[in-house]
């Protein structure tokens, strides 16, 4: 539904945001490599590749969330959203170290991870979120955060269970820290984020969040390529 001036209503835009998250979940179920991760049948090399690519975008999460929050404060925009960005920055701190620990247990030292080639999807993801944080609408990163945390809620914990049950990857029990951590925490994060976003009424900011959510959805399967 649209208002007479052509903008989406508050409820409508949140429905659209959730649709982006749900669509990402369904697209990954249909993606061969992602499906093997979800059902626990992924082989060691492909799992390591996924973790390496994940590392190369996750290491940007804390600094970008912090900068987005500080920039919103400088601009005097939405104090509650600015505080949420800073809170999420603190929550995500150190998650890249979980990935390095998991990869070390798969035989990948940190130097090898740092030197690994980044996929075009990761390069584009980082560039897009740096742009919105530094020059665009800083609240847009919350659209990215919403779809990724929704994905974790749907799949992370069950993926860990299936990887451990399959036990097809050497040392897998010491290489699921990142997935386990996100499966445990992101349920409350999604609910909190949705509650705050419902207060956002500016159509320009709503559109920016939706575009970031859509961009993240479009790029995410590239982590498996």
Task: Describe the protein.
The chain has 225 residues and is mainly alpha-helical. It is 75% helix and 0% strand. The chain has helices spanning 10-30, 32-39, 44-58, 61-75, 79-92, 95-104, 110-115, 120-134, 141-166, 177-197, 203-220. Helix 1 (10-30) packs parallel to helix 9, helix 4 runs antiparallel to helix 5 and helix 9 packs parallel to helix 11 (203-220). It is globular. The termini are far apart.
Q: How far is the N terminus from the C terminus? A: 37 Å
Structural class: mainly alpha
Percent helix, as a range, is over 70%
* Biggest sheet details: none
Order of helices and strands: HHHHHHHHHHH
Number of strands: 0
Uncertain segments of ≥5 residues (pLDDT<50)? 1-7
Radius of gyration from CA coordinates: 18 Å
Percentage of residues in strands: under 5%
User: Please, what is the average pLDDT?
Assistant: 92
Number of discrete helical segments: 11
Shape: globular
Keywords:
mainly alpha
Outline of the structure:
The chain is mainly alpha-helical. It has helices at 10-30, 32-39, 44-58, 61-75, 79-92, 95-104, 110-115, 120-134, 141-166, 177-197, 203-220.
Give the helix/strand layout.
Blueprint: H1 10-30, H2 32-39, H3 44-58, H4 61-75, H5 79-92, H6 95-104, H7 110-115, H8 120-134, H9 141-166, H10 177-197, H11 203-220
Helix pairs in contact: 1-9, 1-11, 3-6, 3-8, 4-5, 4-8, 8-11, 9-10, 9-11
